[in-house]
Amino acid sequence: MIGLVMAGGKGTRMKSSEEKLLLKYKKPIILHVFDSLKNSNCFSKIIAVTSSNSPKTKRLLQENNVETFDTSGIGYVEDLNSVLKIFNDLIFVTSGDLPLLDKEIIQGIVNRCDSQNVWISILVTNKFLNSLGITSDYSVNFNGEKCHYSGISLVDAKKISSLDKVDEKYVVIDDKRIAFNLNTKSDYDLLSTA
User: Fold this and answer.
1) Which is it for the CA torsion 53, 56, 62, 64, positive or negative?
2) Under a CB-based contact definition with an 8 Å cutoff, are residues 102 and 36 in contact?
3) Spatial separation of the C-alpha atoms in residues 186 and 142, rounded to whole Å
4) pLDDT tens digit string along 15-60?
5) pTM score, whole prediction
6) 3-class DSSP state for residue 152?
């Protein structure tokens, strides 16, 4: 299984001149995410997906011997689609902005999800997200409940040719380690109290 860290976004919701993934929570958040994947021992290879939107993040990753893959930086879906085309393996995709991610939750997700599926997206319920004081713009109704994407998916890249026709399954895991996406200044302020 390959670990893929999405690290090429514009971070516009943060409304900061600093690249979002370089913000620190004990250490730069992007390194925290990478180290969590590495320490899980679940992956044969870990790659960070970068773009011209995040040159300092790419430089930091390369200084820390992280393999990077450049995409256009047009958008999350376009960047992910372009990188999935080059793999013929199971892929654990995570956003690079999950500062509470750790090896245990990664191992739990990998062990819990059926690898026979083409695409599994990990969701958190709206009720749980609200209990943490976090909001999200990306939701889906699942089993009659409003849920939000965590930014983590398990993808069998050899079974897809385009993201336009993907049979997506959902797994709900209400856990703050995957619920806390760092998107806005208020998220970062909240993180300091975690």
Assistant:
1) negative
2) yes
3) 27
4) 777 888 999 988 999 999 999 999 999 999 999 999 999 999 999 9
5) 0.91
6) strand
